[in-house]
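Assemble and predict.
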Amino acid sequence: MCTYATARALVDGSAKGPGSTWFHVTDATVYFDHPVHAMHEHTLNIDLADPARGPSARVALELTAESARQLVGAIQKALASAPTELTMDALP
Amino acid sequence: MARTVHIPGDGGDEIEAYLAQPADDGPRGAVVVIHHLPGYDRATKEITRRFAELGYDAICPNLYSREAPGAAPDDAAATARALGGVPDARLIGDVAAVAAHLRSLGTSNGKVGVIGYCSGGRQSVLAACNVDLDAAVDCYGAFVTGTPPAEFPLQVTNLVDQLPNLRCPLLGLFGNEDRYPSPEQVAELREILSANGKQFEFHSYDGAGHAFFAPDRPSYRVAAANAGWEQIAAFFGKYLGS
């Protein structure tokens, strides 16, 4: 099915993408739907993008549901392992 | 022969499209091919060329032309999704404009059908309820019937209230292992069309789920896809022939 389900988040960071160049990312789009490349019928897809730079300014991930859960766990573990004062959102 | 063209879409906007035609002079019918949510991709262009091989003028409009002109299909699909998807009113306008363009070709016999896959299956039915078309094919479109979960951010609705307006014969091709549309939702569609006296023909295949026509995906089921293509050829032959 096309699930149509799409969640969005505003983010602030950088990604290495097209042409092996780094760019600032502002938007994360997350959806569970058909992948373009992964050999599964459905995957958890994440696009990290800077829409201001056009459609190709995007880093795309297509992960199995279990892989996505493992990634979420790893992210939370990494954040939890760092001193709180370092993970508080602060001015750069 | 096949090539990229730029034609007027909904509201007169210029949109990109892929045109495939037999080499002879016609006259012949035509087909509007509606791509799936992942976009105006190579697989959909191959489908469009197959309709030319079957003897039709065929056009697949790039439904994401406005959001991401010239972008790679996967990037365009990501951009369109992030912006909320294709509005139904614009889809209707695009299909109407493409159908008019096909009828304006010197090879046209005046008949135009529409076919769509996945999200395009729903959009094919949507177009057939609102545009002057001669035949429509719905390949496993979700949410023609059934209720989209409330938390879906994309504002997709079912087409139950529009089905009484269906203007042309409908061929439906479904997988019995699909959940969206489920066999129950297909049965609901069948009941609604019957109750409204609509002309339709459904085929549901065992051992097939969603996207069984897609030869580049793990969901591909050769037996169902081959049988489905035969149904499509017979259906369009019946309703789009001279």
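Residues 2-240 of chain B form a domain with the Rossmann fold fold (CATH 3.40.50.1820).
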